[in-house]
Amino acid sequence: MLRRYLFHEIVAPFAAWTGFLSVLFFVMAFLRGMDFLLGSAVTAWDFVRFTASLAPQFLVQAIPIALLLATLLGLGRLADDRELVAMQALGVRPRVFFRGPLALGVVLTLVLGLLSFTLQPWGMRSLRLIAHEIIRRNLVSDIRSGVFHEEVPDFTLYAEKVEAGNRWTNVLLFDGRDRETPLLALGARGEVVPDERLENVVFVLEQGSVHRASGFSEDYSTVGFSRAEFKADVGGAFFQKNNFRSVREESSPLELIEARRAAFERGEPTLPIDVTLHWRFGQALMPLAFAFLGTPLALSRRGGGRAFGVLFSLVSYVGYYLIARAAVQVAEKGELAPALAGQVPNLLFVVVGLLLMVRVERRGAA
Predict the structure, then answer these.
(1) How far apart are CA 143 and CA 158, in angstroms?
(2) In what order do the strands lie in the sheet with 220-233?
(3) Helix (H/G/I), strand (E/B), else coil: 62
(4) Calpha distance 199→235 (Å, rounded)
(5) The pLDDT of residue 365
(6) What is the torsion angle, in degrees rounded to the nearest 10, for the CA atoms of residue 342, residue 347, residue 353 and residue 355?
């Protein structure tokens, strides 16, 4: 009965904080990608795909901190209403209050584990492809009649007229990738087509000529063509604008295990994959660690109300990732076992929570 009561006290604020944090993370993501999300070629469907791809990542980020906030605020309400004092007067030990947060923490750990195996890596891969596609379409649609276009690195494009379907007439294309021998292409017609690699676009010119000059001699050559293709590697432009690349989250744990096996068979180092894999497992156990830490803090809180809960949750969340990042860096140098590096912040939070609970057991809840 008590476990169910505590569980319900935490579920409602947890759901509210999860929704709020997800919206907050979406706004932050939108601001990060505003350069290309507000481009001329973006559609409403692009926003839908963008949001759907990021939603699993939002949940992975929001669930642990929402649980900590819900624990502090839910159990804090019991303290403010003197229910904790009444329960202790009836002989209820403070350790019993672990039941509600830990029960919810177990459920959320299973949810995060499921997300890490399925929707999270799918979403991050889809997000990268969507961002690349949008950026590429923006690059193409920004080409205007009578305006020099220099968004693609090392290329300058000029079209006298841009027709429907991004077909051009009287096209000038300068290719400066080879600094010593740049070339100038002139074509009666032109267009851009997608390459099999998303990071590239292909400029196609028809009925024209290519002019090339050497910077170290007076050699000058001209070649006519009926059709010519110029492949532009716009990966640099993508990586500058696409802020949503996260290689660590793009592979599921099963894919990381398979990648580790393949690397081992090839005789390649497996340490980076091991560290990433164990970090993913550690990330799934975050709700349990936050439940261990939040419960004794809520029981021992003697003032500050909601402001304390919000502030401490934010500090704990940032501290968790700082500790995790430091452990990962040490493990990548071979100075810490990958399995331990992935669980260092969880173990630290659990130990601190248990020590605080021992203190609460001695002094009593607030």
Answers:
(1) 8
(2) 155-163, 167-175, 183-194, 200-213, 220-233
(3) helix
(4) 5
(5) 55
(6) -160
User: Given CA atoms 72, 75, 77, 82 in this order, what sign does their dihedral have?
Assistant: negative
**Residues counted in the chain:** 366
Concatenated DSSP letters of 189-245: EEEEEE-SSTTEEEEEEEEEEEEEE-TTS--EEEEEEEEEEEEEE-HHHHHHH----
Cβ atoms of 175 and 153 within 8 Å: the answer is no
pLDDT higher than 70, residue 248:
no
Domain ranges of the chain: 2-118+252-363, 144-236
pLDDT confidence of residue 238: 45
| Distance between CA atoms of residues 125 and 245, nearest Å | 8
Output helix, strand, coil percentages for the chain, rounded to the nearest 5. Answer: 65, 15, 20
Sign of CA dihedral 274, 277, 280, 281: negative
Q: Give 71-86 as a 3 state SS string.
A: HHHHHHHHHHCCHHHH
Coil, strand or helix at 250: coil
> What is the tens place of the pLDDT at every residue in 191-247?
887 666 556 778 889 999 998 876 555 677 888 899 988 887 655 544 444 445 555
Q: What SS3 class is residue 153?
A: coil
Residue for token pair 């975050």 = 286
How far does Cα 310 stand from its chain's mean position? 23
Average pLDDT, the chain: 81
How far is the CA of 138 from the CAs of 6, 45, 67, 173, in angstroms? Answer: 52, 15, 40, 19
- The average pLDDT across 305-329 equals 81
C-alpha closest to that of 69 among 337, 312, 366: 312
- Compute φ and ψ for 213, nearest 5 degrees: -130, 145
d(CA 203, CA 265): 41
- Please count the other Cβ atoms lying within 10 Å of the Cβ belonging to residue 82: 11
- In one-letter notation, the amino acid at residue 346 is N
**Confidence (pTM):** 0.73
Supply φ then ψ for residue 89, to 5 degrees: -65, -25
